[in-house]
Request: fold
Amino acid sequence: MQNGSSLSIAESGCLHSDKFDDDGRIKRTGTWMYATAHIIKAVIGSGVLSLAWCFAQLGWIAGIITLVLFSVITMFNSLLLTDCYRSPDPVNGTRNCTYMDAVKSNLGILQYKFCGIAQYGVLTGISIGYTITTAISMAAIKRSHCFHKHGHEAGCHVRNNSFMIIFAIIQIIVSQVPNFHKLSPLSIVAAIISFMYSFIGIGLSIAKIIGDGIGETSITGLPIREDFTGMDKMWKTFSALGDVAFAYSFCFILIEIQAILRVEQIYDTLKSSPPENKQMKKATVVGITASTIFYLLCGVLGYAAFGNKAPGNFLTGFGFYDPFWLVDLANICIVIYLLGAYQVLAQPIFGFVEDSSKEKWPQNKLITKEFSLWGIKINMLRFVWRTSFVIMMTIIAMIFPFFNEFVGLLGAGTFWPLSVYFPIEMYISQAKIRKYSFTWIWMQVLSLACLIVSLVAAVWSTHGLVTSVQTFKPFQSVS
Reply:
């Protein structure tokens, strides 16, 4: 839509006006501070929930080093990415409105297709992960009331499948809303509630430390014992690396904002003077630094509160303690956040299939025609496809309801291609860095090192999923 509008504006000669930029798009007025807010808002999402568990696997030293190291690598590659917003020149070149456009401009059509596969694959995986996370938080609310009523010694176990089904029904209904991703209050609401549940978690951790003291922690994390072998320790450690990678995958910011507005609004909000790449570099440094401090607080305080028994989702661990209403509020915030985030991240998948179908079968009325039902516009393709997608994601979540292993696999599969490989390769191409030069070599070494870490984390996260499935009865998930 925007490309079409820009073309018509350019053809009518409405360039360099007070309302439009030199490429025909609406003039931008945002500043680096506005972009920083977007970054922080998008980074602090569901990835923060598993950081206390990661510290329990890695220990104090490795946990802190891992968080800082991923932060530095993510920041470096994000800075490279800011120079690829315009091509071929980072200041005066043509604007690339999406991440995939930047890949296509700098690396060609083959890499563009690879990027598309990676992005859509990640978005599909996140949909499954969000279904699992929401069910766990819903179950935690019910459990906290049970503990409050029957005491902390009660079992209060809750089946997660019913909550997954409830979540799926809501998503099926909401997914039929046209242009859901363009509802402007979404980003504001998401920012408020993500900060809310994170701050509640930090506050509850501090309160638990004050009341019960620091939990049983160690330099190396969960110790090896009879029922926890060295091999178990190894795969838990690498799975934790995948979880941290998921939390630090800066590409999710770009994808999320692209999904909301169908353009890289994180860049497009920035006015053209001073140059966008300079503003974006400042926003990236501030945004990732602030997020890292926040992540360290959640990870360190969560680990100190629970020790080596830190739960996979640290907010569900407070269901055993008062004030139960505050625990409920935090988990309600997570549920609300993920209800909207699921749709925001699913919209590009929905749009890709629907747009491709309309291009291939433009005369098919089942695909193109809309009819009104009780004042709501219904399209058969949209109804059948989106409903089927939600049902498929829910079934997979019921079969593999393992939060940390799944998040680890997502992070491992996402971090290298979207946060390391493409930014480095695009920068090398655009900056015309000579092959086998010193800069080219150390960038390739960095990329290779991140690839190895991602592969190892993916292998061990997959091993964790397989091991869990072997002792798990499908569709019998219990919190």
Remarks:
- The domain at 26-470 is CATH 1.20.1740 (Amino acid/polyamine transporter I).
- The CA atoms of residues 365 and 380 lie 9 Å apart.
- The longest strand covers residues 370-373.
